[in-house]
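A student in our group prepared the protein record below, which I am reviewing. This is what I was given:
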Amino acid sequence: MTASTPPAWTTPRDVTARLRKRFDNGIYLSELAENVAWEPLSVPLTGPKPDEITRHFEAALAWAESWSAHAHPRLRIERRPIGGRRVGFNDVPARVWIDRREDLWHLLRRRFLWLSEWHESLRS
């Protein structure tokens, strides 16, 4: 990587692809069919390091904005501070959480809400 080439940071598409791969492997539907209680899913994000913020400021800013809560209302975005003397401290996205099964379906553009409703009726 040269100073002019921005690094590969985790994008929203990367997260969706990772979750879709698990969906395609049947993990989420198997859990639903087996009546496994939902537990929030988390996906770690790779973002800029302090020195990358200075070398790729515009790219780092665009990356952070791509993870805004406004852009992803169905995700909980965990942030962490990074930085130091050169760039100061900044909170950057570090991990995303999917708190509800319905949010996963929406993210994957799957229409399985009726399955979730059926699953909830079994639990009551």
Observations:
- The helical segments are 12-24, 27-33, 50-55, 57-66, 101-107, 113-123.
- The longest strand covers residues 88-98.
- The mean pLDDT is 85.
